[in-house]
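User: quick one, fold this
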Amino acid sequence: MQRFLILLFACISCAVLRADVRAGDAVRHPALAQLPAHMLWAWERPEDMRWLPADVGVAYVASTVLLRGEEALVHPRVAPLMLADGAATVPVLHVDASWRVPPALNGQQAARIVQELLRVAQRGSRNVVQLDFEVRRSQRPFLARTMAEIRRQLDPRIALSVTALASWCMDDAWLPGGVADEVVPMAFRMGQGRNDLRRRLRRQGFVQPYCRDAAGYASDEPALRGLAARGYYFSPRPWTAASWQAMQSDTLSAIP
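Assistant:
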């Protein structure tokens, strides 16, 4: 009888532990709770965003790394960015892979990306840093390894956000689990079949659960609303108070 009770207690303990692990998987990084529900992307161009409401933040390109051949060329931001005091900011590291001179995707290049991301991560005001790295299918293993190394070295107090193609959050899911605290699928510039994908997103949202906390939208495309609690917004032109107001008031629901 005593042996039975011991075994029963052990089974219950294991079940509770597994439940805790499952619950822990759903826990979001506390730094993300400090971000506004609306974040405007500020790309590498002059931006005067001092007009921005206090409840809207800015994810700005702080640096760009160009992978070309054996090189990893770092270009820190030089375009001016003017913000009101106290604005919520998230530095973005943008990574480009040359098409003319395909990158070697070697360990030195990965290390340079990690080093630069760790540097810009200190520039934000909300303990969040974002990696923007759109890769070809053949380059995915390199991105996965680089993200894993970022996760290993990044201060655990800083949340890692990564952008993703919309398809990566649907049937073409490949992102390794647990290496990012926030995945931001871009619900714009979706290429061929974009109209069908818009209809599907309108109907069911993103298939992958880890893609449902944030989504990216563009000011010059029909907006898909309600895909995520936090929106990141892209504009091909410098932001103005008028363009942000137009983006907010865009209630277009019909999908062409």
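User: anything notable?
Assistant: The first helix runs from residue 2 to 25.
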